[in-house]
Amino acid sequence: MGIVEEAHNVKVLGSGEKTIVLGHGFGTDQSVWKQLVPYLVDEYRVVLYDNMGAGPTNPDYFDFDRYSSLEGYAYDLIAILEELQINRCMYLGHSLSAMTGVVASIFRPDLFSKLILVSASPRFINTDDYYGGFELEDIEQLCQAMESNYKAWVSGFAPLAVGGDMNSVAVQEFSRTLFNMRPDIALSVFRTVFTFDLRHYLSRVTVPCHIIQSSMDVAMPVTVSEYLHRNLGGKSIVEIISTEGHLPHLSAPEATIPVLLRHISHDITAHASSS
């Protein structure tokens, strides 16, 4: 196993001809895909990895400067693909990793046949001409709450993000992976995610994109997915699913997995009307 593979806890499952790489969002790790993976391994080569800073990674490897922008994560993704000698893959990313895939696909479009973007937002903060769902003051208050009492913050944030009460399995699972992160790293990643502005990148994306979002997501309005669809440089398609929360693959796998499988197998480049 190479250095990059080891650092990111890379796992390769299945032995299909086509490769699909799964990237997780903020506060989770590769275990968030455990309900999807069994549906993929018979047909695809499946690559799982942890973002640097996620609970199972070595916190000593977390570079606060490198991961203050999405480019750091994008370079990590490219390094993983290169070390595994993957010349082309489908990439399924959630939230932070969805936008990581977008950036990586601009740097190395040859590596990606398509991107499947779950709960993807190029910017969470509102501007005069853009509605992302949050005011800057909202994000600052959340960051202050994380700094003052991380445990209490998780107890409030997890049910809000997942969409459910504290006793639900999905909320407990998201709380577990949040608690696995070192609080100062969690704060840094949270701040990066919720303050980035990647809108200027969108027109440079040439890889086909499948955009998937919950109909009720407290972290982002449905208009964000429509914004992505309008502004991405390549072909794209949007599907809004009747689920609640920012992590539909965790909170409503029975509704989300069939949608993901359909987008994995369906190729929008064959349908010109999807652009």
Automatic annotation (TrEMBL):
InterPro entries: AB_hydrolase_1 (IPR000073), AB_hydrolase_fold (IPR029058). SUPFAM superfamilies: alpha/beta-Hydrolases (SSF53474). The keyword Hydrolase applies. Keywords: Hydrolase. Residues 20-257 form the AB hydrolase-1 domain. The lineage of its organism: Eukaryota, Viridiplantae, Streptophyta, Embryophyta, Tracheophyta. Coiled coil: none annotated. It comes from the Eukaryota. It comes from Solanum commersonii (Commerson's wild potato). PANTHER family: ESTERASE-RELATED. This is AB hydrolase-1 domain-containing protein. Gene3D superfamilies: alpha/beta hydrolase. Belongs to the AB hydrolase superfamily. GO terms for molecular function: hydrolase activity. Pfam families: Abhydrolase_6 (PF12697).
